[in-house]
Amino acid sequence: MALSQIRSVDLSRNFIKEWPRVKEKLANSTSKIEKLDLSKNLIRSLPSLAFHNLRSLVNLSLARNEISRLDDGVFFGCESLMVLNMSRNHIRTISDEWLFGLTNLQQL
């Protein structure tokens, strides 16, 4: 199966600390990913435009990480995202525009 055809990626429970490093690895195969599970990792922060190349993403789980802040534009480009699970994080700071671009979000 070609990587460009993958629709679901489960990276849960992998001790991932930095999303940008994972994003680099997925860069060539992200066009069709609809479901991404990054739950139960050690991610502490997400940069602006963290998921901008995941335009087909419908379901994203970032539950049970160590995310402490959500900056502007983190999910910019994720217009297809309908389900976002951010439960059980350590969020202390949320910017005014962190949800910018999530026009189809139905469940948070």
Automatic annotation (TrEMBL):
One Pfam entry name: LRR_1
SMART domains: LRR_TYP (SM00369)
Name by which UniProt lists this protein: Leucine Rich repeat-containing domain protein
Organism: Teladorsagia circumcincta (Brown stomach worm)
PANTHER family cross-referenced by the UniProt entry: IG(IMMUNOGLOBULIN) AND LRR(LEUCINE RICH REPEAT) DOMAINS, LEUCINE RICH REPEAT CONTAINING 53
SUPFAM superfamilies on file: L domain-like
Gene3D superfamilies: Ribonuclease Inhibitor
Keywords: Leucine-rich repeat, Repeat
Record's keyword annotation contains Repeat: yes
Coiled-coil regions, chain positions: none
The keyword Nucleus is annotated on this UniProt entry: no
